[in-house]
Every structure is written in C-alpha cells, then in structure tokens.
C-alpha cells in the first residue's frame, strides 16, 4: 500500500479553471498529493471577472465536511473564499477537532476587484479562523484589511506580520509582496521568531489569474507530504513563479497561471513564447 498523502481545499469555484477549487486541485495533482474539495460558493467567473455568485447553504457545507472527515482524514487543509461568518464558524468547528496543518488564504477580492467575502465578515475571519492557522497567506491589501496597517515598505510589512501572529494568534504568516512594485516579487515568512524572505524575479505579464490560490495550494501539498514550513514555502514559491512565467494567454482578460509550468523548465524562455497556447 503506497503512502498516500491527502490534502483538502475548502473554497469557491472558478469554472474557467484558473483560480479557486479548480486551481487548488490541479496544484495538488501536480505536487503529487491526493486532492479533495469542499465547495463554499459557486462563482460564475472567468479571465475577465466575476459574473455571479451562488453561496451553498451552511447546512450543506457542513454535510460536505462531514463526508470528508468521517472518511478520509486529510494531512493538510487549505481554505480560500469563505463568504460569511456562519460559514467560517462551521469550518472552524471542524478544524478545531482536526490535527491537519491548516493554511488559510484570506481571499477577499478577485483580481478584477469583485468582492468574494462580505465586508462585515473580515473580523470574523480574525476571530474564528486565524487562531487555528498553521500559516496565513495574505497579499498586501488583505494584510492591510486584517491589521488596519498601511503597508508600503519592509518595515510596515514586518509590523503587520507580527500583529497577525502575536495578536491574532496564527502560528505563522506569509505576507505576499506580489502587489508591490519593483523588479522582484518578494514574500516574507514570519514564524513568531524569525523573518525569512522568498524572492523571485518579477515576470512582466498580466496573466496572473489564480496566483494566490496556486501558491497556497502548493504550500498545502508540501506540508501534507511532511515538509517543514520553510521548505514548503520555498517549493511553493518556485512552483508559483514557474506557473506565472509560463502563464497562459487564454481568454479575453487576465489569463490563468500554468499549473504544469514547472515541467516546462527545460524549454528556453523566449519572451513571446510563454504566451502561446499549447
Ligand atoms: N508578476 C509576478 N512575477 C512573479 N511573481 C509574482 C508576480 N505577481 C505575483 N507574484 C508572486 O505570486 C505569489 C502570489 O502572490 P499575489 O499575486 O500577491 O497573491 P494574490 O493572488 O493573493 O493577490 C507571490 O509569491 C507573489 O510574490
Ligand atoms: C473562488 C475564487 N477564489 C479565489 C480567487 C482569487 O484568485 P487569485 O488567486 O487570483 O487571487 C478567485 N478569483 N476565485
């Protein structure tokens, strides 16, 4: 019997396949863990934006979680889009009893700017889910919303990261600098004691639909395999950077990251080439 590690994503959907549940499952597959999914909201979206959202009833969310946890216990769990406080409470009740590593991606908006979480639920995220998290992975606007700190340099990044760990109770935080300017895309991991930065060259592309989902899913998969947090983030950063470097020019808007990009490492990168469809 092979040692099968499983990972669970609890999130919203993206029928166009670039973000949300679909991105998470593709990433789990690429990182070689058995992927499972519990859906919070059905989102009609594509590369141009969000067209409509349909939330699943909380009782049905609870039933999906029961289906998983009564049968296949995941080694690691990630959450993405969770629209309401009731849903957060329901998920927190299950995670409280679980020993799995828990990666919380505090998804608030789609890249198009469309809100994916009720504004009144942000505090609920802090009170119900952040204290349970092995790792929280906010981008800069999400970290600003969570902490109320304006983030525009390394010092404010560090202050916000410390607040998320020391005051809100996460074990660790990975504050992603993808939204900042500069030649490098740098992220800061704070584990309550030390900061480690993970840096990659910024890729000049608008095709970044699903970067945050893909990154947190890759980290979740690596934790499911038993890697340390530092190692999981290192592998996740390499994975997402390749997925952005080889992102796909699909659709009419911001194309998706390429979940099998790392397999194309041996292909010489030519500026025009990585926008081709293959
Ligand atoms: N143009 C880019 N080139 C390289 N890395 C990027 C680029 N944009 C974002 N990243 C990286 O992608 C990962 C996801 O970050 P980000 O895009 O900030 O998340 P989100 O999707 O939650 O907004 C981070 O490691 C970030 O540094
Ligand atoms: C269901 C869902 N969850 C999350 C995102 C954010 O995606 P990104 O990874 O581009 O920030 C999204 N567009 N849709």
UniProtKB/TrEMBL annotation:
Coiled coil: none annotated. Keywords: ATP-binding, Kinase, Nucleotide-binding, Thiamine biosynthesis, Transferase. GO terms for cellular component: cytosol. One of its GO terms (molecular function) is phosphomethylpyrimidine kinase activity. Pathway: Cofactor biosynthesis; thiamine diphosphate biosynthesis; 4-amino-2-methyl-5-diphosphomethylpyrimidine from 5-amino-1-(5-phospho-D-ribosyl)imidazole: step 2/3; Cofactor biosynthesis; thiamine diphosphate biosynthesis; 4-amino-2-methyl-5-diphosphomethylpyrimidine from 5-amino-1-(5-phospho-D-ribosyl)imidazole: step 3/3. Its EC number is 2.7.1.49, 2.7.4.7. CDD domains: HMPP_kinase. Pfam families: Phos_pyr_kin (PF08543). The keyword ATP-binding applies. The keyword Nuclease does not apply. One of its GO terms (biological process) is thiamine biosynthetic process. Residues 14-258 form the Pyridoxamine kinase/Phosphomethylpyrimidine kinase domain. Belongs to the ThiD family. This is Hydroxymethylpyrimidine/phosphomethylpyrimidine kinase. The lineage of its organism: Bacteria, Bacillati, Bacillota, Bacilli, Bacillales.
């Amino acid at each position: 019997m092979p040692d099968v590690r499983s990972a669970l994503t609890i999130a919203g959907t993206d029928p166009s396949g670039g973000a949300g549940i679909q991105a998470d499952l593709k990433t789990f597959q690429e990182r070689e863990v058995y992927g499972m999914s519990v859906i919070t909201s059905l989102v009609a979206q594509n590369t141009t934006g969000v067209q409509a959202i349909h939330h699943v009833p909380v009782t049905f969310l609870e039933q999906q979680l029961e289906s998983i946890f009564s049968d296949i216990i995941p080694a690691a769990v990630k959450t993405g889009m969770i629209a309401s406080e009731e849903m957060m409470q329901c998920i927190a009740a299950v995670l409280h009893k679980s020993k799995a590593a828990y990666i919380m991606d505090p998804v608030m908006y789609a890249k198009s700017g469309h809100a994916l979480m009720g504004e009144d639920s942000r505090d609920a995220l802090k009170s119900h889910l952040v204290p349970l998290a092995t790792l929280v992975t906010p981008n800069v606007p999400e970290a600003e919303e969570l902490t109320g700190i304006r983030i525009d340099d390394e010092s404010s990044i560090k202050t916000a990261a410390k607040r998320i760990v020391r005051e809100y109770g996460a074990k660790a935080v990975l504050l992603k600098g993808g939204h900042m300017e500069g030649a490098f895309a740098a992220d800061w991991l704070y584990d309550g004691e030390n900061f480690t930065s993970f840096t990659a060259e910024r890729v000049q592309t608008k095709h970044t639909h699903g970067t945050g989902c893909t990154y947190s899913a890759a980290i979740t998969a690596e934790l499911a395999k038993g890697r340390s947090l530092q190692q999981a983030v290192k592998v996740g950063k390499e994975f997402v950077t390749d997925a952005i470097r080889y992102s796909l020019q699909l659709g009419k808007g911001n194309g998706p990251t390429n979940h099998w990009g790392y397999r194309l490492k041996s292909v010489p990168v030519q500026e025009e080439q990585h926008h081709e469809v293959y």
